[in-house]
Design a protein that fits this description.
- The protein has 13 helices and six strands.
- It is of the alpha/beta class.
- The protein has three domains: 47 residues, Arc Repressor Mutant, subunit A, CATH 1.10.10; 111 residues, no CATH class; 135 residues, 3-Layer(aba) Sandwich (Glutaredoxin), CATH 3.40.30.
- A six-stranded mixed sheet has the order 1-6-5-2-3-4.
- Strand 3, helix 11 and strand 4 form a beta-alpha-beta unit.
- Helix 4 runs parallel beside helix 11 and helix 5 runs parallel beside helix 8.
- The chain is globular, with a radius of gyration of 21 Å.
- 45% of the residues are buried.
């Protein structure tokens, strides 16, 4: 048998750690799970676990992200109206909630400690809020594409996500409380609710500069589709505190790739993967692909894509953008409003 390379050995060990951690978290719950127990299950040393994941929480986020990435394709037909799509989204969501009859631990309750762990640390709270806002933007834009006459529907998306995340929290904290199908009906009714939602162009200060520079990015996977990201059009490098800035660039009319970067990649990169991948799983069963906004989301935990875009140093407040045409960088901007600044010339079509 051929000897494994160092990279292959690391990848195999990482997979073993993830599988062992999933079993440990499912059996014992996050609080009572032990790193030593994970190491024993993986037949590795404690040091080998920590060489792949710096702590139990980062490993927990990675386990949940891996589980989301492995979710099967839905078998339902997508919705054709705003009401149908909201109902289907809610149905697929509540179908995955733990039931009152489920045991205290197990696969159905694997994710119940996510929000408490996010809440436990300022490092995770603000990025998670921005990621949920990203979910609302993507969902809202998809609803708008189903009904182009409806105006901005991001607030409707926020209301639906608020109801669904609330149902998730109560399914964990108060099993058996409430009728989950009332949540589905409530989400459907949001289609008729006027929340006085308007889009106001922020007119932020970043200015675009015309350039002619090489564009040599590393390959990347779009979390929203699970497919290779094209990496053309507007490439917007966003720290986890600035993820919601993607809406302005999308409404400027261009195809956008959001390259998410962070100064805390061990914990926040898997949290990004988890949040976006779970949204993808719900979108697949509720919306036709033609309704999805022209957005790709890429996690750049090592900063390679950011460096290719001329952003060598990144953090959670980073906001920088380039416009790519015919394999060249033709414009760039840095600071608040960078994506909008490089997106399209004034007067271009601004429908996302």
């Amino acid at each position: 048998m051929a000897r494994l390379t160092r990279a292959e050995t690391q990848e195999r060990n990482r997979a073993r750690v993830l599988a062992a951690a999933r079993a440990e978290f499912a059996e014992r719950g996050f609080r009572d799970a032990k790193v030593d127990g994970i190491a024993d299950r993986a037949d590795l040393t404690r040091g080998a676990v920590y060489s792949n994941f710096p702590g139990k929480r980062s490993l927990y986020f990675a386990v949940l992200a891996d589980a989301a990435a492995r979710a099967p394709e839905p078998s339902t037909e997508p919705g054709r109206t705003v009401r149908e799509a909201l109902g289907l989204l809610a149905r697929t969501w509540v179908a995955g909630l733990p039931m009152a009859t489920d045991p205290a631990h197990g696969a159905a309750r694997l994710g119940v400690d996510l929000v408490p762990e996010v809440m436990a640390d300022e490092v995770t709270r603000l990025p998670y809020a921005q990621l949920l806002m990203l979910d609302a933007i993507v969902l809202g834009l998809a609803l708008e594409r189903l009904d182009p006459t409806a105006g901005r529907l991001v607030r409707v998306a926020e209301a639906a996500l608020t109801a669904l995340h609330g149902a998730t929290a109560l399914a964990a904290a108060a099993p058996g409380f409430g009728e989950i199908f009332n949540v589905v009906r409530a989400c459907e009714q949001l289609a008729d609710l006027d929340l006085d939602d308007r889009w106001f162009d922020p007119h932020l200060a970043a200015a675009a500069h015309v350039v002619d520079e090489p564009w040599e990015p590393v390959p990347a996977t779009d979390l929203l589709t699970g497919e290779p990201a094209p990496l053309d059009g507007v490439v917007l490098v966003l720290g986890t505190h600035r993820v919601a800035a993607v809406e302005a660039a999308l409404r400027a009319g261009a195809a956008v790739t959001a390259v998410v970067v962070t100064g805390q990649p061990d914990e926040l990169a898997p949290l990004v993967r988890l949040t976006v991948t779970e949204l993808r799983n719900h979108l697949r069963g509720a919306f036709p692909r033609s309704a999805w906004p022209r957005l790709r989301v890429v996690v750049d935990d090592r900063g390679f894509l950011a460096a290719a875009a001329g952003v060598p140093s990144v953090g959670d407040t980073t906001e920088s953008a380039v416009r790519v045409e015919a394999g060249r960088i033709v414009a760039r901007a840095t600071g608040f409003g960078a994506g909008d600044a490089v997106a399209t010339p004034a007067g271009a079509d601004r429908s996302p």
